[in-house]
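Recall the central idea of this unit: under ordinary conditions, the amino acid sequence of a chain determines the structure it adopts. In this exercise we apply that idea directly, starting from the sequence alone.
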Amino acid sequence: MSHRSFKVTACAISSLAVGVLGCGSSASPAGATAPAAAADAASAPSADPGYSVQDGNNLPVPATADGIQLETPDYDANNVNAAHMIVQPNQEIFLCYYITLPNKTELDVGQFQSWMSPGSSHHFIVYEEKGGSVLNATPQPSGSIQSCGVASGNWVYATSTPGAIVSSTMPAGVGLPFAAGEQIVLNMHFINTGSTALYPKVKLNILTAKNVQYKAGALVSFNTSINVPAATPSGPGKQTVNGTCTVTAGSKIFSMSTHTHKHATAALVNFVSGGVSQEIVHTGITATYPAEQRNGTGTDWEHPGVSLWKGPDFLTANSGDSFTYSCSYENTASSAVTVGETAASNEMCMAVGYYYPAGTVSCQDTASSN
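Accordingly, the structure predicted from this sequence is:
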């Protein structure tokens, strides 16, 4: 059986909007339920979404009929792109790898699988470069790698677990669409705290959905109000940022998570329905995590909470329902921590997830001292 593997050097960006609600994935415990409106169980997908993290030192290439693999090149000092794939001691770098997908017709994604080499990999985010996004990107030659601070486009996938195969699966009959020949970007973050040079590697499998009935959308919030004051003699500087997001009534959310950096002490997502607020994702130390949250997730910023909901209703949003999200920070440094990509001196606050059928998402973000 033949396989396809593509060297990734493309920045495919898909941040639905600055301040729009976002995505994650987690396995729901048996019997767990979530708020839901009446649904058409006869037509709605019922197979559960999935999220898994498995130890692994490589990511196999999928069969041609199942999908494609994008792979960063091995380090080569004589290659203008591959020369980027080295992290020197005590260095932190951000790279964008741009690639134009080979599909000649629309491709519906049923599953993302990813793998990052251990040692220097911190995280990578996949964006699609799509017209109409708040942060439009400029197309680049397919296969090129560039240094980049903040990527742009529409967010579609992210992971922060090196040395493992991470899988995020859509429900049966649901696909996240990529247009024919669309360019995507891998926004990669690497840190080397050791004394020798490291050579990072990132792989992403894009597996096609089967028998697609519904198109999925990504929900992404990105809070721009972060400005954590410097520490004082009395203690660390503190701040909490938050926001409220809505999706089209009837949307079925099946996955939700968060993304921050190391200054975060907590990142929460709540579902507000009928005036009642229910915590659905919790990242940070706590005695009890939401029932929908996958076991082993949510302990800290490097292992964010991931929640999944089962079909056929999943987590259905009615008219007037909303999501609220918040991130709290403590800063022990002598200068303020602001919004940005650098893990050492910047912070992020994102709630991220998937839903269907694809529709509209609207978010407003705020900030307050605490």
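The longest strand covers residues 237-247.
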